[in-house]
Design a protein that fits this description.
By secondary structure, the protein is mainly α. It has helices at 2-8, 13-36, 43-50, 54-57, 64-88, 98-112, 114-121, 135-152, 157-161, 170-177, 189-210, 221-238.
C-alpha cells in the first residue's frame, strides 16, 4: 500500500523543474537541427542558444550521444503519432485502404520535417551508436507495428505463413524466427519478408522525394505515391492465400 501511495505521488518541484529544463534543451536542439542539419548538432551550440554553459547542460545530458538518442526517440515518436493520426482519420469502408493512408501520413511528416527525417534515416552521425535495444529501437518498433497491423489486417497467422515468396534459405528462415517477439518476431518468416520488401519500396519513394530526386514530376508526386502504395498493397495481398491449407 505504501508503494502504491508513493507511485501515485505527484512529481516534486525539483523533478518538475528538471523535466521543464530537459524539454527546453530538446526543443533548442530540434531548432538547431532544423536550421543547420543533424551533422552540425553539438552540445556547445545548444547550450549557447539557451544561455547556459556546457557544464550545466551535462547535468541533463552527460554527452552528445545521450542528447542524440533523446532526439531520435522523440522524432520516431512524433512520426508514429503522425502515422497513427492519419490512420485514425480513415473512415471504415473508405476508397483509400488504411495502409495507404498510413503511408501518406508517413510521407507528409517526412516532407514537412526533412531535417528530422534525415536525423532518422540520413547519413549516420559520426561516432554515434544507438544503445542496443534501447529507447530508439522501441520507438521504431512502435511505428513498424502500425504498418504491420494495417498491411496484414484480416489475415490469420496460418495464411501469412503460406504467403507466396521466393524460397528462404534455412539460415535466413532461422534468423527471422528468432527475432524479438515485440518486433517482427510475431510474424511468420514469409510475412516478414513481405513487410520488409514493402517497407523498402515505401520508404525509398519518400527518401527520393524528401531529397529532391523526384521533383521532375512536379505537383503530381502525391498522386504517384498513392498509386504506388495501392499497387504495393495489392501485390502483397495477392501473395497471401485466401484460405490457409
Amino acid at each position: 500500500m505504501l508503494a502504491d501511495r508513493e507511485a501515485a505521488a505527484p512529481p516534486t518541484l525539483r523533478q518538475r523543474r528538471r523535466a521543464a529544463a530537459t524539454q527546453e534543451i530538446l526543443d533548442a536542439a530540434e531548432l538547431h537541427i532544423t536550421a543547420h542539419g543533424p551533422p552540425a548538432l553539438s552540445l556547445r551550440a545548444v547550450a549557447r542558444s539557451l544561455g547556459m554553459t556546457v557544464q550545466a547542460l551535462y547535468h541533463y545530458f552527460p554527452n552528445r550521444d545521450a542528447l542524440v538518442t533523446a532526439l531520435i526517440t522523440k522524432a520516431y515518436g512524433d512520426l508514429a503519432d503522425a502515422v497513427q493520426a492519419a490512420v485514425d482519420t480513415a473512415a471504415d469502408g473508405a476508397d483509400v485502404p488504411r495502409l495507404v493512408v498510413a503511408a501518406e501520413g508517413y510521407r507528409r511528416w517526412a516532407i514537412a520535417r526533412p531535417e528530422h527525417f534525415q536525423l532518422l534515416y540520413g547519413t549516420p552521425l559520426r561516432e554515434y551508436e544507438a544503445p542496443a535495444d534501447g529507447p530508439t529501437t522501441r520507438a521504431m518498433r512502435r511505428m513498424s507495428a502500425i504498418f504491420e497491423r494495417e498491411m496484414f489486417a484480416g489475415f490469420t497467422t496460418a495464411q501469412l505463413a503460406e504467403a507466396d515468396t521466393p524460397a528462404l534459405s534455412p539460415a535466413l528462415r532461422a534468423h527471422l524466427e528468432q527475432l524479438p517477439p515485440d518486433g517482427l518476431g510475431e510474424l511468420p518468416p514469409a510475412a516478414t519478408t513481405l513487410l520488409l520488401s514493402a517497407w523498402g519500396h515505401l520508404h525509398g519513394l519518400v527518401v527520393l522525394e524528401v531529397f529532391g530526386h523526384t521533383s521532375f514530376t512536379g505537383d503530381h508526386q502525391a498522386e504517384i505515391f498513392r498509386a504506388a502504395m495501392r499497387n504495393l498493397l495489392e501485390d502483397v495481398h495477392r501473395r497471401i492465400p485466401a484460405h490457409a491449407p
